[in-house]
Every structure is written in structure tokens, then in C-alpha cells.
Amino acid sequence: MRKNYTTMEFSFKEIASVSLILFSVIDMIGNVPVIVDLRQKSGKIQSGKATIVAGLLMITFLYLGSSILGLFGIDVNSFAVAGAIIMFIISLEMILGITLFHHDATESGGTSIVPIAFPLIAGAGTLTTIISLKAVYVSNNILVGIIVNLAFVYLVLKAANWLEKKIGPSGFSVLRRVFGIIVLSIAVKLFTDNIGG
User: Fold this and answer.
1) Which of 19, 89, 173, 180 allows an S-S link to 145, with CB 3.0 to 4.6 Å?
2) Is residue 7 part of a domain?
3) 3-state secondary structure the chain
4) Backbone dihedral angles phi then psi of residue 72, each to the nearest 5 degrees
5) Are 149 and 19 in contact (CB under 8 A)?
6) 26 part of a folded domain
7) Which residues of the chain have pLDDT under 50?
8) List of residues 6+ apart from 62 with CB closer than 8 A
9) Amino acid 101: pLDDT
10) Could you tell me the residue range of the domain that residue 48 belongs to?
11) Nearest Cα residue to 59 out of 132, 161, 127, 153
12) CA separation for the pair 195, 78 (Å, rounded)
């Protein structure tokens, strides 16, 4: 029997499943070297602002994602390719130790919004995943899963200074390159999966 996905009913099992899926896609643990690197370049990351903006993007896409993209004549595949290109640039910075993306901390929001809120947290992979989850789970359960992940995102961003001290310069240098390759791999996969439409 087909499930009624418009129901207001909450399910712990669905919330847990959505939370784990989004946790894997957002990969905040894997993004720690990127966040520390961005903090070193900009001097400060506004954790609350980044979390709120990322949350607004995710919740907006939960309810209006397909309609918003359609309004601009953009399909999900094109959106994913754009996110992959940004991730590709970030990964090159991490691996080669160069600066291609100029972070202006004097701008409103600085690095809190770009590239942390988008595309690191609420990137093309996360947003397209949210749209896909609507075909399987109740929207309210997806919303709770998003909120659970945002709480974890906020904690990781707030702990950036502590994590930087614990990792140390040499450890950070190694991790930055290792995770740079991982980010590059994700970007290439996202690109190849969506470039054909």
C-alpha cells in the first residue's frame, strides 16, 4: 500500500534514517580541515550565521527545491554540476596549498556564507539529496533530520579553534591534503554523475 507522505505523523525510524543519510552527505568531520583552513585565511568564522544560512537553504529546498530550480529553468543535474565545480576549486586549494578562491572577511558574512554555508554544508549534494528524500520519507521527519544535523554542524564550527590546536600545524598540513583528495574525488563523482543530465 502506498504511504501517504503528506501526513503530519513523526517516525523515530524515519528521522534516524534521514539524519544518518544527511550526516554522511554533509560529512562535517571530513570538512574539518577545510573549515580550519578557511578560518586561518579569514581570521574568523561566524558559526551561527553559517548554520542558519545553511539551514534556511536546506529547509527551502525541502519544500520548494524543484519549483525554485524550475523557475530559473535549471534542472537538478545542472545545479549539482555547478556545486561540483566549486568543490573542485576548494580541493585544489587544499592539495596544492594555493589560493584560488579569495576570502574577503570584510564582506557581510565573509566566509560564513560562501563557501561554508554553501557549498560545504548545504551544497549541491546535500540539496539534491533532500529533494530525493521526499520521495521516500515524510517531509516533517526530513525536517527534524535536517535540524539534528544543523546542531552537529554548529558544534563542529564552534570547535574549529580547539580542533586546530589539537591537530597542530604538521598534522593539519597532512590532513588538508588527504581530505583535499577526498573532496576532489567527491567533486569528480558529482560532476560525472550529473554532466550527462
Assistant:
1) 19
2) no
3) CCCCCCCCCCCHHHHHHHHHHHHHHHCHHHHHHHHHHHHHHHCCCCHHHHHHHHHHHHHHHHHHHHHHHHHCCCCHHHHHHHHHHHHHHHHHHHHHCCCCCCCCCCCCCHHHHHHHHHHHHCCHHHHHHHHHHCCCCCHHHHHHHHHHHHHHHHHHHHCHHHHHHHHCHHHHHHHHHHHHHHHHHHHHHHHHHHCCC
4) -95, 5
5) yes
6) yes
7) 1-6, 103-109
8) 130, 131, 134, 139, 142, 143, 146
9) 58
10) 12-102+110-194
11) 127
12) 7
Residue 6 lies in a domain: no
Q: Angle at the Cα of 104 (from 155 to 34), degrees rounded to 5?
A: 40
Residue 3 lies in a domain: no
Domain count, the chain: 1
